[in-house]
């Protein structure tokens, strides 16, 4: 093989090697981002599971509302740490509706965590409330518990809706999606009111000392 042919073969080998290396790097990065995107979807399942547990905890809070009492909820914040790590990595590969759906879900988690923390803060502050302010404190507590309860239900709605529609069709005002959202919120408010109404005859001592699943919104 003459010198020119050897040079061509060497150059071709270099080009092929560069192409293979580039394609390998691209493929690895592509698969990494796909795993991150899948991780974001998996985290939504975790959020839904945590929210369902929080609903049970808040049902107990509503039962204390029925007794015109204030009690510590002791709920743990919903964890969603992976979103903070992965979202910026896959942002450009998501459609606008997907991005808006993820953002709505995770901002709802942050807001809900703040609301739940506020319940225990209100409980602590209520311990020093004077008797003439007790009714006002109970009314504020009732509003806070019901709001958190409804918003937790709405969070599960957002997650279920996203998982059922991975492209994340946004909710636009005054369309069918918005009407469905309004109906879901109204149903959650109705459930909260029903729990309060059906819990008015519960013995406070029983509620305070016994874990009885039958008490959780099924009395």
Low-confidence stretches: none
Mean pLDDT: 82
What structural class do helix, strand and pairing data support? mainly alpha
Count of spatially separate domains: 1
Q: Major beta sheet, specifics?
A: none
With helices defined by DSSP (H or I, 4 residues minimum), what is the helix count? 6
Cα-atom radius of gyration: 26 Å
Distance between the termini: 92 Å
Q: What global shape is seen?
A: elongated
Secondary-structure element order, N to C: HHHHHH
Number of strands: 0
Helix content: over 70%
Textual characterization of the structure:
The chain is mainly α and 219 residues long. It has one domain (35-215). 75% of the residues lie in helices and 0% in strands. It contains 6 helices and no strands. It has helices at 3-66, 81-90, 96-126, 134-164, 176-198, 204-209. Helix 1 runs antiparallel to helix 2, helix 1 runs antiparallel to helix 4 and helix 4 crosses helix 5. The longest helix is centred in the first third of the chain and has 64 residues, at 3-66. The chain is elongated, with a radius of gyration of 26 Å.
What secondary-structure arrangement, pairings included, does this model have?
Elements: H1 3-66, H2 81-90, H3 96-126, H4 134-164, H5 176-198, H6 204-209
Helix pairs in contact: 1-2, 1-4, 1-5, 3-4, 4-5
Defining key terms:
6 helices; elongated; mainly alpha; single chain; 219 residues; 75% helix
Q: What's this, in brief?
A:
This protein is mainly alpha-helical and 219 residues long. It contains six helices and no strands.
């Amino acid at each position: 093989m003459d010198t020119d042919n050897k040079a061509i073969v060497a150059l071709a080998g270099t080009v092929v090697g560069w192409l293979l290396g580039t394609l390998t790097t691209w493929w690895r990065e592509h698969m990494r981002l796909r795993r991150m995107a899948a991780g974001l979807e998996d985290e939504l399942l975790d959020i839904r599971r945590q929210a369902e547990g929080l609903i049970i905890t808040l049902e107990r809070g509503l039962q204390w509302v029925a007794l015109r009492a204030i009690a510590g909820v002791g709920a743990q914040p919903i964890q969603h740490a992976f979103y903070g790590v992965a979202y910026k990595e896959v942002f450009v590969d998501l459609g606008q509706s997907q991005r808006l759906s993820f953002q709505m879900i995770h901002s709802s988690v942050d807001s809900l965590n703040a609301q739940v923390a506020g319940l225990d803060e209100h409980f602590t502050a209520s311990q020093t409330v004077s008797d003439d302010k007790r009714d006002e404190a109970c009314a504020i507590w009732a509003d806070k518990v019901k709001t958190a309860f409804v918003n937790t239900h709405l969070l599960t709605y957002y997650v279920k809706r996203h998982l059922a529609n991975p492209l994340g069709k946004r909710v636009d005002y005054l369309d069918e999606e918005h009407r469905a959202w309004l109906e879901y919120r109204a149903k959650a408010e109705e459930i909260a009111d029903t729990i309060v109404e059906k819990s008015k005859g519960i013995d406070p001592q029983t509620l305070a000392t016994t874990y009885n699943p039958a008490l959780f919104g099924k009395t």
